[in-house]
Amino acid sequence: MAQFGFENDIHSILKLDMPITNAPMARWQRKASSSNLSTLNGLSPGKSANVSQSSSKTPSKTPGKAKKQTPSKMGGDRFIPVRNSKQMDVASFLLAKENEPVDANTTAASGNQKAWSMSLNGYNIEDAKILHLGGKPLNAPEGYQNNLKVLYSQGATPASTTKTRYISSTPERILDAPELRNDFLYIILDLGLSSADLNLFDWGSRNILAVALHNSVYLWDATQGDITLLMKMEREEDYICSLSWTKEGNYLAIGTSDCKVQLWDVENQKRLRSMASHTARVGSLSWNDYVLSSGSRSGHIHHHDVRVADHHIFTLSGHSQEVCGLKWSPDGRYLASGGNDNLVCVWPRAPEGSVGNGQSIRCWTEHQGAVKALAWCPWQPNILASGGGTSDRHIRIWNVNSGSCISSLDTQSQISSLLFAPNYKELVSAHGYAHNNVVIWKYPALSRVTELAGHEDRVLSLVMSPDCSTIATLAGDETIRLWKCFEVDPVKKKAKERLGKSTSSVIHQSIR
């Protein structure tokens, strides 16, 4: 019996029918008491006391969802984050209220609104921070200043959007040029080593490349790839000294070692005339409409009017040695000449119908070597570039109007040819000893863009294709190399093609 009495006592102790004295307050009791206390303390004066307990909850878009509250006393069971940090309902309310007109009576009730805000939300609604994701940005408070500086911007700058073009270091095509006359003539002078050479290369506007190989002239059609023998001199000891296409590309002028200038109709492969006026070989040629200018080893420059029988109309005497460089300006106003006497001369165009001798308007003596390389700037007709031989090696840029040297650059190599590339406003130079290469320079800075190497001997001549996208080089290694360095803008190409559709040549109408 005593055993059964002991078990009954144990069961009576474990039963919870009676309240447990000296035990901690239950969680729901603590929650209810703290909620009632905050409601009583948050009432404003003059307001009714029967405020519902749910008024202490944060406004929510989800109806019936109870507020989660962090315990305010130590010893709580876990941390429950407060949803007030997001303040989504407050943000929606302020965005809707932003564009409402301001009422004058609202100022008087601002104190009451602040008290209600503190009691209902636990913070002042006017000081709430809102994450504004779209629409009109919030206005900054009056007198606000931002002292932060922009250190980095992801906006694309003009430099970052510029495309860098690719220039191949290998030629697009290589052609054989057997029996090429590598006629660099070296003469020992008091000033040093001087040189002169021939102009055996030219590219016409009809995309035909003319090459002189010893005493023959060959034509290579760059479009079709066909090769044609245009002419061959009668005597084996004679040779071709210079070539030059007309602007229209249907006639070719040929300077020979027997002191003559021949004019050929390329389409019909017929020689139209042979003009004799020089006393030495004709090493340079240049066209200006119907006037053909020829430079000779005697130092004289002759103007030929190819429309009339008495073709020799003018003589320019300014060089004491062979005229190895001759170029008319794009506008036809000036003729530039370079000689083996290290001079660069600029001559005015002879007046219509005039006959006699002319005087140069400029004569520069800064070069210390023979000047064969001459090039006029297509977009600045008064700018002339010249290059010196082995003893000089300098590229010099001249202003014909003022007579001043704009810039000078030592290339450390003999300069045999120059030309301007209008597609990218660059200058191209061909070199002999000692580099035997081609260099592209940015104009007018004359900073090096790239170098084209591959020839095993000095580069003798440099010409450009009609669309200004490709350059061709002729070297002493008996090869012709084509380099596609300047890609053509399609818009500029169409405009140039429209300008190229002109009427028949003036020479074709009146030559005899």
UniProtKB/TrEMBL annotation:
Residues 33-44, 52-63 have a biased composition (Low complexity). WD repeats lie at residues 233-274, 316-347, 389-408, 452-484. Pfam families: WD40_CDC20-Fz. The gene is cdc20. This is Cell division cycle 20 homolog. Residues 32-80 are annotated as: Disordered. One of its GO terms (cellular component) is anaphase-promoting complex. It comes from Echeneis naucrates (Live sharksucker). Keywords: Repeat, WD repeat. Transmembrane segments: none annotated. Gene3D superfamilies: YVTN repeat-like/Quinoprotein amine dehydrogenase (2.130.10.10). GO terms for biological process: anaphase-promoting complex-dependent catabolic process; positive regulation of anaphase-promoting complex-dependent catabolic process.
